[in-house]
Amino acid sequence: MTEPERDRRAPAISIRGLRTQFGRQVIHDGLDLDVRLGEVLGVVGGSGTGKSVLLRTIIGLNRPRAGTIKVLGQEQARMSAAQWRRLQVRWGVLFQNGALFSSMTVAQNVQLSLKEHTALPQRLMNELAALKIELVGLPADAAGKYPAELSGGMRKRAGLARALALDPEILFLDEPTSGLDPIGAAAFDELIRSLQQSLGLTVFMVTHDLDSLRAICDRIAVLVEKRIRIGTMEQLLQDDHPWIHEYFHGPRARAALGA
User: How far is CA 56 from CA 20, 37, 63, in A?
Assistant: First the structure.
C-alpha cells in the first residue's frame, strides 16, 4: 500500500476531545490523536503526562470522562459487550514488565488468549504457541520454562509472543525496551520493526527511549500540557516547545541522535 492510499483509509485509532481524570487530577484534556494504519507511532512525554494512562484508556482499562475513542472504526462507548469482546481480539498488548503469570510456563502464558477466545484443540494450541515463540526469536526449549528462569530480555519476548497469539492487527507496547541493556534494546527494536513489516501491524509504542524513536518510529506523539503534538523526528526537532526542545536537544538526545 502506498502512503497516499494508506492516508485515505480510516485511521487504526482515532481519538477526539479525550479527557481522563482521577479525582481532581486531570491527565488529558481535549486530547486528539489519529494513529495511521500500518505505522509505528512512538508516544513520549514527561513524568506524569499520562503515556501509559493513554494506552490503558484506549484498550478499555480506564474509563475516560469525556471524548470519543474509535479503534478500527468502532467507537468504544457505543459497543455492546459482545462487540467489545470481538474487538479485543484484534489487538495485542505487551505491558512494561511482560505481565507473565509466574506459575505458568511460557507456552501456557502464550496459550491463555487462545483458550479464552477460541475452541481450538490442545494439540493445535501447542503448535501455535511454539510458532509464536519461534517468531519472537526465543529458542524452542523456552516453551517449557517459567518466567523466573528467563532473562529480562527473554521475558519481554515471551510477553510479545503472548501479545501476538491471536494474530492482532494492532500491537500496543508499554516501554518495551525498559530494563534492557543497549544491545538487547537494539535487538528488540529490530524485532518489532521486522514483525511490524512482515505481519502488517499498526504499532502504538509508549517509550522514553530515543534510540527506539529514531530506529523504528514513523511518527512521534508528544504529550505536553494534557494534549498531543505529533510529527516525524525531523519535524519535532524543529518544534520550539520548551519540553520538546529539551527532550530532543538535551545531552542524552545529542548522544542518541548522533548530534
Answer: 11, 19, 9
* Strands (DSSP E) found in 158-238: 170-174, 202-206, 219-224, 227-231
Cα Dmax for the chain: 57
Please give the Cα distance from 131 to 216 (Å, whole number): 24
Residue pLDDT, tens place only, 219-256: 999 999 999 999 999 999 999 999 999 999 877 665 55
Helix (H) or strand (E) holding 117: helix 106-117
Judge whether 171 and 203 are in contact, CB under 8 Å.
yes
Residue-wise pLDDT tens digits, 135-152: 999 999 999 999 999 999
Q: Count the neighbouring beta carbons within 10 Å of the beta carbon of residue 243.
A: 17
Which amino acid belongs to residue 60? G
